[in-house]
């Protein structure tokens, strides 16, 4: 078992370099954060204080989409869901935000072919991992799902890694399979090529994908997002039900073995 | 020449090297914050509430952000007193600071058994009795909101507690002074306040409560004026020292609590906003004292001029 105190957490004052709209309610913020860019592992997150929103006292956890170690920046893709993320869209280059990181246990690569499944904005926390698999020459496939084509904001970056489009699904059928991405996942698993599934997205999707993986006899890892306060494992706000009791998504996760999760 | 500043305070027999501890439940037993906080500079570490065999806690969602504050309904999830003695207390002691163990129970018996276990272990320096727990024997009624049950639980704890005993008061009462007097009369060496204020939050769009348990405890800067008022009222009502808390974010906030009558202060929700808060609040108190020419932090206690 990993020692949850093994990795050091630290602060970094990050400076906004860019903050651009990628699709409906979807934005990408680029932050100059050289220490974080060095430290972040695929699937880990940063816990960010919202500058200019002092009455909003809680930090927001954001998975890191991309990190450029040489240039010293990280990218986060966020969806506008509440007042905090709505306010974030107003951040101009130069705004400074306090980060703590690198938080949590991320994705661990395993032998054999991997199936990466990203639903909606859940595609973002898997990208660093796909990049790592590609760099190591490990075989993998990517399935992305979204409501509509314009929300598949990570499609081009994944396509650049794969050398072709990922497998796509949209609820409205505007591109790829019409419907949830569970159907393409089922088809992929039916090939029998996969050793491990890595999934991030809405909880019902992760649950469905975990069930498909289980049926196929394939291991599955999921990234659980819960409302979080401290981010360091102290407050017990973000607990996930598991077969071994309640676990903290901030330090015991966010990535969990799906067979341990009590959905 | 810079005068040496005395920061040491005596909280009902617990000697604290400085007045700053954490509010129970916001800091675990300190280790989780060790990357950000020099725990050895704290006046004490106050542990998360501990029960006899551990509790699972409540369903999720357990928190909701509210204007300048947050609601929580964690439900005192904890692994039980044996785990605390085995894992957490030795770590706190390794930092060279006093350990205040927050004691919880669902019955008089459970409080007593937790303290007995802690006395047998012998590592704790003081107890903070959380009387905001629901009393299962009384149909879930909170111990801390009625004088007779406050008297009963504090007296029962006093019989077995050989260390300084701080009683943590619930603010969800009509007359906090009456409760403070009951705790003092039943043997409290100190009182701490405020625990969280009962509140709720609703999502209008889904028409659902934001917490699984519907209601929860409000904390953060939003509660500070209420907390200051209650500390001030208690300071006038009892002779035992007060551990003041409720929305302390800065050293100046802490000084305000001391002026209202607190001997020591606890930093809670601020840890979530600023993981360095425990040290920053102490630094802020020191800076205030230097600026104001205060040589002994004890001068601040009850120093409100009105």
TrEMBL record, chain A:
InterPro entries hit by this protein:
Cyt_c3_hydrogenase_gsu, Dihydroorotate_DH_ele_sf, Dihydroorotate_DH_Fe-S-bd, Dihydroorotate_DHASE_ETsu, FAD-bd_FR_type, FNR_nucleotide-bd, OxRdtase_FAD/NAD-bd, PyrK_electron_transfer
Does the record bear Transport in its keywords? yes
Q: Name one process (GO BP) from the record.
A: 'de novo' UMP biosynthetic process
Q: Name one Pfam family in it.
A: DHODB_Fe-S_bind
Q: Which GO terms describe its molecular function?
A: 2 iron, 2 sulfur cluster binding; electron transfer activity; flavin adenine dinucleotide binding; metal ion binding; oxidoreductase activity
Tell me its cofactors. FAD; [2Fe-2S] cluster
Q: Which Gene3D superfamilies match?
A: Dihydroorotate dehydrogenase, electron transfer subunit, Nucleotide-binding domain of ferredoxin-NADP reductase (FNR) module, Translation factors
The UniProt keywords, alphabetically, are: 2Fe-2S, Electron transport, FAD, Flavoprotein, Iron, Iron-sulfur, Metal-binding, Pyrimidine biosynthesis, Transport
Q: In which pathway does it act?
A: Pyrimidine metabolism; UMP biosynthesis via de novo pathway; orotate from (S)-dihydroorotate (NAD(+) route): step 1/1
SUPFAM superfamilies recorded: Ferredoxin reductase-like, C-terminal NADP-linked domain (SSF52343), Riboflavin synthase domain-like (SSF63380)
Q: Where does [2Fe-2S] cluster bind?
A: 230, 235, 238, 250
Residue numbers binding FAD: 60-63, 77-79, 84-85
> Where's the FAD-binding FR-type domain?
9-109
Q: Cofactor stoichiometry and binding?
A: Binds 1 FAD per subunit.
- The answer to whether keyword Transport applies is yes
User: How is this protein organized at the quaternary level?
Assistant: Heterotetramer of 2 PyrK and 2 PyrD type B subunits.
Concerning its family, UniProt says: Belongs to the PyrK family.
> What is the recorded function of this protein according to its Swiss-Prot or TrEMBL entry?
Responsible for channeling the electrons from the oxidation of dihydroorotate from the FMN redox center in the PyrD type B subunit to the ultimate electron acceptor NAD(+).
What is the protein name for this chain? Dihydroorotate dehydrogenase B (NAD(+)), electron transfer subunit
Organism for this UniProt entry:
Slackia faecicanis
Q: Which gene encodes it?
A: pyrK
From TrEMBL, chain B:
**GO annotation terms (biological process):** 'de novo' pyrimidine nucleobase biosynthetic process; 'de novo' UMP biosynthetic process
Active-site positions on this chain: 133
The protein here is known as: Dihydroorotate dehydrogenase
Q: Where is the Dihydroorotate dehydrogenase catalytic domain?
A: 7-287
The UniProt note on the cofactor reads as follows: Binds 1 FMN per subunit.
Q: Where in the cell is it found?
A: Cytoplasm
Positions contributing to substrate binding: 48, 72-76, 130, 195-196
Q: Which Gene3D superfamilies would you find in this protein's record?
A: Aldolase class I (3.20.20.70)
Q: Which EC number applies?
A: 1.3.-.-
HAMAP family for this protein:
DHO_dh_type1
Protein family according to the UniProt entry: Belongs to the dihydroorotate dehydrogenase family. Type 1 subfamily.
* Main location as per UniProt: cytoplasm
Cofactor(s), names only, from the UniProt record: FMN
Catalysed conversion reaction = (S)-dihydroorotate + A = orotate + AH2
In terms of Pfam families, this protein maps to: DHO_dh (PF01180)
The function of this protein is: Catalyzes the conversion of dihydroorotate to orotate.
Keyword annotations of the record = Cytoplasm, Flavoprotein, FMN, Oxidoreductase, Pyrimidine biosynthesis
Any idea which GO molecular function terms this record carries?
A: dihydroorotate dehydrogenase activity
Superkingdom per UniProt = Bacteria
GO cellular component, alphabetical, reads:
cytoplasm
Keyword match Oxidoreductase: yes
Residues the record lists as binding FMN: 24, 48-49, 102, 130, 168, 194, 220, 246-247, 268-269
Name its pathway.
Pyrimidine metabolism; UMP biosynthesis via de novo pathway
């Amino acid at each position: 078992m990993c020692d949850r105190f093994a990795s050091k957490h630290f602060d970094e004052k990050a400076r906004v370099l860019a903050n651009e709209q990628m699709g409906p309610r979807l934005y990408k913020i680029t932050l100059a954060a050289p220490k974080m860019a060095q430290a972040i592992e695929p699937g880990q997150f940063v816990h960010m204080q919202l500058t200019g929103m002092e009455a909003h006292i809680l930090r927001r956890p954001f998975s890191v989409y991309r990190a450029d170690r040489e240039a010293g920046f990280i990218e986060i893709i966020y969806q506008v869901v509440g007042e905090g993320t709505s306010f974030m869209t107003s951040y101009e280059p130069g705004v400074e935000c306090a980060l703590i990181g690198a938080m949590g246990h991320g994705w661990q690569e395993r032998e054999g072919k991997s199936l990466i499944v990203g639903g909606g904005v859940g595609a973002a926390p898997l990208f660093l991992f796909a990049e790592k698999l590609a760099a190591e020459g490990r075989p993998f496939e990517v399935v992305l799902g979204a409501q509509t084509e314009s929300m598949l904001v990570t499609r081009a970056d994944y396509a650049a890694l794969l050398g072709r489009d990922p497998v796509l699904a949209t609820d409205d059928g505007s591109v790829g399979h019409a419907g949830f991405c569970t159907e393409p996942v089922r088809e992929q698993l039916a090939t029998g090529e996969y050793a491990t599934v890595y999934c991030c997205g809405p909880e019902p999707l992760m649950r469905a994908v975990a069930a498909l993986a289980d049926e196929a006899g394939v291991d599955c890892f999921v990234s659980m997002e819960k409302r979080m306060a401290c981010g360091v494992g102290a407050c017990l706000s973000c607990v996930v039900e598991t077969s071994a009791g309640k676990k903290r998504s901030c330090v015991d996760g966010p990535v969990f073995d799906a067979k341990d999760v009590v959905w | 020449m810079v005068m040496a500043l005395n920061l040491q305070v005596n909280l009902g027999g617990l000697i604290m090297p400085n007045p700053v501890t954490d509010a129970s439940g916001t800091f675990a037993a300190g280790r989780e914050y060790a990357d950000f906080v020099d725990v050895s500079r704290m006046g004490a570490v106050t542990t998360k509430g501990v029960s006899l065999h551990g509790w699972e806690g409540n369903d999720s969602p357990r928190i909701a952000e509210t204007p300048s504050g947050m609601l929580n309904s964690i439900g005192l999830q904890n692994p039980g007193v044996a785990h605390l003695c085995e894992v957490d207390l030795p770590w706190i002691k390794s930092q060279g600071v006093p350990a205040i163990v927050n004691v919880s129970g669902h019955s008089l018996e459970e409080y007593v058994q937790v303290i007995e276990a802690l006395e047998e272990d012998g590592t704790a320096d003081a107890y903070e009795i959380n009387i905001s727990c629901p009393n299962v024997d009384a149909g879930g009624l909170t111990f801390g909101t009625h004088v007779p049950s406050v008297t009963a639980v504090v007296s029962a704890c006093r019989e077995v507690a050989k260390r300084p005993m701080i009683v943590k008061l619930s603010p969800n009462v009509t007359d906090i002074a009456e409760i403070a007097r009951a705790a003092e009369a039943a043997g409290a060496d100190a009182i701490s306040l405020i625990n969280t204020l009962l509140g709720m939050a609703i999502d209008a769009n889904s028409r659902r409560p934001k917490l699984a348990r519907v209601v929860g405890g409000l904390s953060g800067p939003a509660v500070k004026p209420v907390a200051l008022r209650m500390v001030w009222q208690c300071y006038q009502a009892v002779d035992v020292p007060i551990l003041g808390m409720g929305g302390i974010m800065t050293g100046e906030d802490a000084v305000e609590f001391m002026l209202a009558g607190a001997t020591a202060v606890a930093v809670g929700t601020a840890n979530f906003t600023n993981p360095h808060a425990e040290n920053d609040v102490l630094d802020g108190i020191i800076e205030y004292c230097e600026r104001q020419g205060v040589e002994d932090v004890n001068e601040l206690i009850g120093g409100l001029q009105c």
